[in-house]
From TrEMBL:
The lineage of its organism: Bacteria, Pseudomonadati, Campylobacterota, Epsilonproteobacteria, Campylobacterales. GO terms for biological process: lipid A biosynthetic process. Residues 19-86 form the UDP-3-O-[3-hydroxymyristoyl] glucosamine N-acyltransferase non-repeat region domain. Catalyzes the N-acylation of UDP-3-O-acylglucosamine using 3-hydroxyacyl-ACP as the acyl donor. Is involved in the biosynthesis of lipid A, a phosphorylated glycolipid that anchors the lipopolysaccharide to the outer membrane of the cell. One of its GO terms (molecular function) is N-acyltransferase activity. Its EC number is 2.3.1.191. NCBIfam families: lipid_A_lpxD, PRK00892.1. The keyword Transferase applies. The keyword Lipid biosynthesis applies. This is UDP-3-O-acylglucosamine N-acyltransferase. It comes from Arcobacter aquimarinus. One of its GO terms (cellular component) is membrane.
Amino acid sequence: MTLEEIADFIGINCQEKKEITGLNTLLDSNENQLTFLENKKYLSDLKNTKAAAVLVTSENASEVPNGTIALICDEPYLNLAKISKLFAPNVVEMDGEKPLIGGGTKVMPNVYIGKDSVVGSDCTIMAGVFIGDNVKIGNNTIIYPNVTIYRDCVVGNDCIIHAGTVIGSDGFGFANTKDGKYIKIYQNGNVTIGNDVEIGANCAIDRAVFKSTIIEDGARLDNLVHIAHNCKIGRGSILTGQVGLAGSTILNAYVVMGGQSATAGHLEIAPFTTIAARGGVTKSITEPKKSWAGFPLFEHKQWLKLQGKISNLLK
């Protein structure tokens, strides 16, 4: 769409005919993409953006760099939500190539594989599996019954995905109007899963708003794990039952999270960190190879001492 058409859609006056191909973050946008600034803490990112245009308030418009067009509005985030619908892909493609199935792959009855999708060799796809359009699945991967893989997602080689798991469902993204109405932010990214990954039963891995939710090689997810949009799970990480990660969490390599532990969004956990069961991570962890527990989070040894002192109070 042209920038003029997009601006008209949200009621902003703009005469620019420049073609916009998609939406992205401030730092990841290219000269054909639209971005936004809502929070002042990202002003430094605004100054370095390469975007064609940015949704921005009048207060911050002077910070927009040369070569980027300022679309001035009162609520940039809300307007981004409205615009995201314009760039959302079709839910189901009616046109396209039939799926390609590699040699030695076994596909059981009652399986749907969408247009332009590719399944590698020596895979096993069990009954009730739904694989959407433009999905790529590597070699020697096993997908158990009733797994759903939404469009545009990627699964690597030698993976195991257990029954009932959903990969690529929409991330939980909404913007509020002033009267409290929720406007959906369409999740136009995907999920990318590396090689040698095992995902337990009834997990939910959300697609990214932009770009990808990523699970790197060798990761292991237990049953009932939830990964929110734009998270990154480092290689060899282990997430046990009922772990939940809020959006844009980054786990570096070989992080271990115990059952029912969770993170707040937009934080990063150092390599070889262990979070004990029911631990609540609210801030980034920068020092590697440490164990943590509790909520609020303590180093594990300190948490054990605290529990001992509390226990003594009851004697």
